[in-house]
């Protein structure tokens, strides 16, 4: 291992949960659960590869949180009841066998759901049709339907879904919880100006639009206690609006990251297409740098476009404590071990995500 990669292999912790290095696997939807949302042996083998390959932390794909409107994709895993929760136990055990920590990412798809066994309709903050087209590699087709604006009761149910699912995740053995507030899903819809046109306490200026993410965080924290890491993933771009930028620029960053810091988030997981690039046109600071400025004492995970150790070092120098890999981890499930051994890393092959982005047999034998 060369001296300039040493910092990637220093130990750290998140809210007292120790991590052996600064390299994590980012959440990636792989639609490989059973039809009823239960985790599978294939998933256990898939996640174990990353732990065996030396990653200090693995974050699950988005796990849906209720049997109403949360599910986003057919064959997405859920954690809505005890049966689904305990199906995760062999997956967690497989990751833990190699000394890697495992966090459950909890997700509500909201208006961009394109496959829900429980409902045919969708809901969101407002009756605004989502931009873009459904993703074919997640079995979607055509435009997103028009969602109904959520009622107070439906919002309360969604918040409770996150809290109850967090408790179930702990019962399955997970080490921490990540609240999915990014990429265009429900919490991000409430944060987004054009998707959230509400004039009640859930809408308004950017600070007011953070009400849902804060409510979810507080409900989860109350349910799991102070000792459990509870973080939040945040982005500008969305799966259905890839190039979206916060209209308020730095002021929006201050409102969002400041709110999470004030709420007591154990970490913030920032994701961008290229996480080292300036967050806004004409600016210099990346979203990581802005998160560090406005949440100075909160551990930061950074994800987006990092393919090698040098770029990971650069992102850490900008303020990240941990670097999460997505495509690079798919191409190199043993990325940390390769870096330690000063071996070359493989390039990502997009074919792995087609025609459906499920886990392929070839991935389990690599």
From TrEMBL:
Residue intervals of the NADH:flavin oxidoreductase/NADH oxidase N-terminal domain: 7-342
Keyword Oxidoreductase applies: yes
Source organism phylogeny: Bacteria, Pseudomonadati, Pseudomonadota, Alphaproteobacteria, Hyphomicrobiales
Protein name (record): NADH:flavin oxidoreductase
Superkingdom of this protein's organism: Bacteria
A UniProt-annotated Pfam family: Oxidored_FMN
This protein's UniProt keywords: Flavoprotein, FMN, Oxidoreductase
């Amino acid at each position: 291992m060369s001296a300039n990669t040493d910092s990637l292999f220093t130990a750290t912790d998140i809210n007292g949960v120790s991590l052996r290095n600064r390299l994590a696997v980012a959440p990636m939807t792989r639609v490989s659960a059973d039809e009823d949302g239960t985790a599978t042996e294939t998933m256990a083998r898939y996640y174990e590869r990353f732990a065996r390959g030396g990653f200090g932390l693995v974050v699950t794909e988005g796990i849906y949180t209720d049997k109403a409107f949360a599910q986003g994709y057919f064959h997405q895993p859920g954690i809505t009841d005890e049966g689904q929760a305990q199906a995760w136990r062999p997956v967690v055990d497989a990751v833990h066998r190699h000394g890697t920590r495992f966090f459950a990412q909890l997700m509500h798809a909201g208006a961009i759901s394109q496959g829900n066994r429980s409902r045919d309709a969708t809901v969101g903050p407002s009756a605004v049709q989502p931009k873009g087209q459904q993703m074919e590699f997640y079995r979607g087709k055509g435009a997103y339907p028009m969602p109904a604006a959520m009622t107070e009761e439906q919002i309360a149910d969604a918040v409770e879904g996150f809290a109850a699912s967090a408790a179930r995740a702990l019962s399955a053995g997970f080490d921490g919880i990540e609240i999915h507030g990014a990429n265009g899903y429900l919490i991000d819809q409430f944060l987004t100006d054009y998707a959230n046109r509400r004039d009640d306490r859930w809408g308004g200026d950017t600070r007011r639009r953070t009400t849902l993410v804060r409510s979810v965080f507080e409900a989860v924290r109350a349910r799991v206690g102070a000792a459990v890491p509870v973080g939040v993933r945040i982005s500008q771009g969305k799966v259905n609006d890839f190039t979206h930028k916060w209209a308020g620029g730095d002021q929006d960053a201050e409102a969002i990251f400041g709110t999470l810091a004030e709420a007591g988030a154990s970490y913030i997981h920032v994701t961008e297409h290229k996480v080292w690039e300036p967050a806004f046109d004409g600016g210099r600071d990346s979203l990581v740098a802005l998160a560090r400025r406005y949440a100075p004492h909160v551990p930061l995970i950074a994800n987006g476009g990092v393919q090698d150790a040098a770029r990971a070092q650069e992102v850490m120098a900008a303020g990240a404590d941990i670097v999460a890999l997505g495509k690079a981890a798919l191409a190199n499930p043993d990325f940390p071990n390769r870096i330690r051994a000063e071996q070359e890393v493989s390039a990502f092959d997009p074919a792995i995500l087609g025609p459906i982005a499920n886990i392929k047999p070839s991935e389990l034998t690599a």
